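In the laboratory, one determines a bound structure by crystallizing the protein with its ligand and collecting diffraction data. In a computational setting the workflow is compressed into a single prediction: the sequence and the ligand go in, and a structural description comes out. We illustrate the idea with zinc ion.
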Amino acid sequence: MNTGGACEKLRGHLDAYLSRELSQETSREVERHLESCPQCAAELETRARVRAQLQAAVRSTPVPPNLEAKVRRVLNAKVSRPRTGLWAVAAAAAVIVCVTLVGLLRERANPEQAILRKTSGRLAAVLNVGLRDHLHCAVFRKYSKQPVAARQMDADLGPEFAALVPLVQAKLPRDFRVIQGHRCIAGGRQYTHLIISGGAGGGKLVSLVLTRKLPSESLSGGIYQAGVDRFQVVGFQSHDYLAYVISDLDASQNLQLEAALAPVVREYLAAHATG
Ligand SMILES: [Zn+2]
Ligand SMILES: [Zn+2]
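The predicted complex, in structure-token form:
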């Protein structure tokens, strides 16, 4: 029997283990623990099963393998601008210093930015796309904790997405409820956003976030998840959209919620997404 601490540490590694993102050494450590700990082995099995369900639910046409590299090349291609003279260089340097300072000051006053900076890994930027809106609307902004009237939600969502609400509600566990739906803008980007509350004591906050994919962004071929601060983020790509479930539930509850919602979101986007 292992101590609780060892199990907790191991569970923090399980998702990375399933995605084969761990170093060989850490993988071996995980495997050693799993051999001697039936509870963690069972947890691994559960997560693997939910993942497989999800992957089957959201599998989409794969992006051509060289697309990402192509996009990156375009982004990296430097535009050479003739700029001469020491003053121009000094002025540019001064601008950079100012921008950096403003950035630092803004960040200190902005808890959203502070949390977004904690993400790491290959997919941090694209997972942050969803997390940003959850933080912006659900966590750090005043919103009514009372459910918004259905008619209000319809108006806030607009005709394209209003019909998604009852479909999502039908897939939620009994103690969860869609309390708000709107279109919003965070970080200059447009989102369609459902806020759900419920769970233990009604105190958990979940966002279903949809946003149109940009050409440089890809979550194709799978489910991606990360724990950031106290939040769990799961994202997948569906048609022209990136879809996320973000919450303060634990990792496997959050995944299960995504597993329940993903098929309905996919179908909806397939039927309604234009272009
Ligand atoms: Zn264990
Ligand atoms: Zn929002």
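Residues 133, 137, 182, 184, 191, 193 surround zinc ion (ligand 2) (CB under 6 Å). Keep in mind that any predicted model is a hypothesis to be tested, not a measurement.
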